[in-house]
Amino acid sequence: MAELSGLQIFKYLPAAKKEEHSNCKACGFPTCMSFALKLAKNEVEIEKCPYVPDELKGIFSHTMKKAQKEIVLSKKNNLKIGGEEVLFRHDKTFINPTVFCVVIDTDTPYESKLKRILDFEITRINENFKIDAVLLKGSNITFELINKIESKGITAIQELPKDLMKVDEDSFGKNIEKLTLIRRTAIKTKAEEFSNPTYVYLKSQNNLYDLCAKASYYLCKYANMIVFEDFDESMFASLLTLRQNIFTDPQKPLQIEPKVYEFNNPDENALIFLTTNFALTYFSVANELESIDRGAYLIVTPSDGMSVLTAWSAEKFTANIVSKAVKDSNLYDKVKIKRIFIPGLLSDMQNEIQEVVPDFEICISTTEACMMKDFIKKINEQDRENGLY
What we know:
This protein is α/β, with parallel strands linked by helices. The chain folds into 3 domains: about 5-65, Orthogonal Bundle (3-methyladenine DNA Glycosylase II, Chain A, domain 3); about 70-245, TIM Barrel; about 260-385, Rossmann fold (3-Layer(aba) Sandwich), CATH 3.40.50. The protein has 14 helices and 15 strands. It has a 6-stranded parallel β-sheet, covered by helices on one side. The protein has a 3-stranded mixed β-sheet with strand order 11-13-12, with helices on both faces. A hairpin with a 2-residue loop joins β4 (about 120-125) and β5 (about 125-130). It is flat.
């Protein structure tokens, strides 16, 4: 059952039924409707209204019940599993990223594998990622080993929680069907027998491409935890990148740090480009700048993670914002050609920006990042003809 809206709650209250105590303010709100709206957002307790009918209390209690239990694997590392309330992240958002756990068998030579796990770390869009947990097995588990793992911010587990439901069918397809059935039933009915978080155990295999593909699908549909016997840096770099995208709140766009980024060891002949801090925009531009044979600087403005046109329409990309970003970049004395290329979609701002950034010539770049390589090639030819490069 879906969560009740404010209007659905209101229909049960005295004001909607035109009964005694309509809009009586006993709940602390001026009207029954305002109370209903607050209750729908879970910002007030239902008991605040002394005239709520028992029927609404029963319905509300069921809808407020968590569809899936949340299990804390480590308070120290704030590692939680489960607690999901939707089938699709665009409905609301997913809460706790799927936990990646690697098995260490202490009855085998494990030191090299453990070192690789502890040393593994990647950075993507201002976030650092590493393996979430290590599942320790065997007879040689010591406090020193546990402390060594925990000191790296990785959770050491000796036994998986009993409330964790293992999905272990005889085929990949059946696993997917079962994971989907459990999540869908939990969300739709909030049935107790389907409320436990799920995990899949992936045994060691030679084909890491196949292993990565299976883990990717389990990540999408709907494993709360994946336990691996194998460890491979490139595989987990791919899986962590996918996980970051899946568990990003769609209402809060991915953004990067607004600052100056350097490409190809820029010197005095470097080009200067400017864009917003929307992650997709940045990486589209960055990929093109990395592929050219000329140094470049990219000034990234603070735009709340909005794309170029969205930032402009929301006044998050203005001439004054650009002026401050250029001033903070300290690039004037680093380049011979005082020129900044702004996104082609904002060509109408050229004169406005030029007025507040008089020390640089403001030029128009391309409307699409994929066009930048040919555009820069022409700029290089023109600069050579004019003896500038």
